[in-house]
Amino acid sequence: MIQKFLYLEWKAFFRSASFATNLALKILIGFLAAYFIIVFLALGIGVFYFLKKMNMDPITTVNKFMIYYLAMDLLVRILLQKIPVMNIRPMLIFPIKKATIVHFSIGKTILSFFNLVHVFFLLPFSIVLMIEGYDVVHVLLWFTGIYSLLYINNFINIILSNKDNLFGIFLLFKTVLAGLQYYGLFNITDYTAPLFNAIFNTYWAIAIPVIALIVLYYFTFIYFKNNLYLDAGLTNKHDVAKTENLNWLNQFGTIGTFLKNDIKLIKRNKRSKTTVGLSVMFLFYGLLFFSTTAFYGPVMHIFAGIFVSGGFLITFGQFVPSWDSAYYQLMMTQNIPYKEYLSSKWWLMVIATILTTIVASFYLYFGWETYLVIIVGAIYNIGVNSHLVLLGGAYTKTPIDLSSGKGAFGDKKAFNIKTMLISVPQLGLPVLLYWLGLKYATPNVALALVASAGVIGFALKNKAFSLIERVYKSEKYATIAAYKQKG
Amino acid sequence: MIQVNNLSKTYNGTTVLKIDSLEIKKGESFGLVGNNGAGKTTFFSLLLDLIQPSTGHVINNGVEVNTSEAWKPFTASFLDESFLIGYLTPEEYFYFIGDLRGQNKADVDALLAKHEEFFNGEILKNKKYLRDLSKGNQKKVGIIATLIGNPEVIILDEPFANLDPTTQFRLKKIIKDLADNPNVTVLVSSHDLLHTVEVSNRIVAMHKGEVVKDIQTSEETLKELELFFAV
């Protein structure tokens, strides 16, 4: 029976819509994966000697921060890891034991990238420990223990996969803990480090994570099995609908009509909500760059400046008009002027960019120069990138499944890595301009260069819109056909 | 009202639709019947400029649909659920379409009140998004939405499918009322010969992309069609 399932998985993988995307993108994703693997590998080998050099005991230090490693892992999983699916519905009526279906579905996640990637850190680290004379048995116990904890994360993510807002709650929780520790008010690691140390030092503590894992697996299994009904876990979640008029938008005419619709689209679909959540994360991206100039040169500041204010623009704008893919045929038969349709999306992005820029004023903490970079980034985003994403969108013919919250067995998670990859070129030009400015003049000239590129873009808005409109028109039939593929 | 000249659609060398000439007069109630793959939906998609014709063109009230968009203000259509916006409530959807067709809230409300019976209490104020409605109820929303803004051409693909018997009966009445209006041209496709005969005053049967029968409805029409399809 398992072979049959594997056969279906194989077909599903190679015939999936995302697999059929172009080769360049696949290669790029491949590089990205390779990059992460190498980073982890370097981390695994390097961390031991680095800590040794700092006169800290490697294993104790790693154990101390292990709780954050695990918490980060869980966060990433909640955001990115897909829930196990096999097309379960058609299986139910065949002579297959329910237990088999569930075991396979859950078992599939064990081989997920999110579990395997840790090998590249934990394995080299463990091997280095052994080479450096730590007891082999203890290292093995520790390795098993940590891996059990990672798999516990895996199952927690599965069970919680149907809950909204979890990501935000976890992120807040973690930020608070990290903040408390940073300011020395409360140190969670004081409580958790002993456990990890115990796993390493004793023979019995390993039982805690392993037993917890077994219990959790059993619990997940029972949970899935009990929900293996069309009206339980396999059902579509029905939200209680509330009619909203948003009448204040009426004053904006047709643009207002579309804005109303877009606001509802963002509020009521899991996919779009995740996108907004992600764009909030972009807001904090600058912390990486501005807090330590040591890692990246000043040129990269503008890079961060664009990311900070452009999170929404990049993650949402990328998929205009795909957000409307489910009912694109309707849009094409209604009396809709493209210009106003595009304008409404453009305004949405501009409003979001301005809002983010205002929220980002906490960067003033790093000095007004830093905030100025963010403002310049925002100007560039509004003037140039807003047009670029709309233009790019005309060629992005990936239908979006808005209703991805399909119950416990729902078939995909919202965010996809490609979104971010496509946006890379949009960052090239400002970085280049800024670099030229820095090299041949002062930082202020560099900023002025980027800002003026934004202003020029803004001045050419009508021209840009006509061009985009033409592309949309010429792509119309291909777009309709592409969106129909999935429907 | 609608003229079709030399229209054809070919996919990879296979011709799925070929209509040399067809004219649908203003005020006509036009029924399109045919088996699966006969080309009914393809024909409607061409009428609505959702796909590109391989040859020929469709002229809707003097507007060539694949070169100008001026046909959109007076043409309304519902082909399938992909015409619905899943995350809206039925009310919001109606108002959205109303906005696009230049109707204010009161106009839309008046139309909805008129068709309250058709909704059978399952659509309005039901705290459900369109995506969570049953197929039949989704269809009701789509059909009524085409009536917003008094369009002159109404195109409905398989409107009877998925509807319960009572609603089918009520829908027939709605279509007949539209057909009685000399300014409204109704185009309906169906697998169900009886329904089509009842609501249409002209019936065209298609087979493998071509028009094989074109008859004005009379007492004998149903018999004639049944004989034709009973292969």
Q: What features would you describe in this structure?
A:
- The complex is a heterodimer of chains A (487) and B (231).
- Chain A is an all-alpha fold and 487 residues long.
- Chain A folds into two domains: 2-226, no CATH class; 247-484, no CATH class.
- Chain A is built from 22 helices and no strands.
- The radius of gyration of chain A is 25 Å and the shape is globular.
- With 231 residues, chain B is α/β, with parallel strands linked by helices.
- Chain B has one domain: 3-Layer(aba) Sandwich (Rossmann fold).
- In chain B, strands 6-7-8-3-9-10 form a six-stranded mixed sheet, with helices on both faces. In chain B, strands 2-1-4-5 form a four-stranded antiparallel sheet, covered by helices on one side.
- Classes of the chains: A mainly alpha (487), B alpha/beta (231).
- The interface between A and B is medium-sized, with 34 and 34 residues.
- Chain A: InterPro entries: DUF5687.
- Chain A: The chain crosses the membrane at residues 23-50, 62-80, 101-127, 139-159, 166-183, 203-224, 276-296, 302-325, 346-366, 372-395, 415-435, 441-460.
- Chain A: Keywords: Membrane, Transmembrane, Transmembrane helix.
- Chain A: Pfam families: DUF5687.
- Chain A: It comes from Flavobacterium flabelliforme.
- Chain B: This is ABC transporter ATP-binding protein.
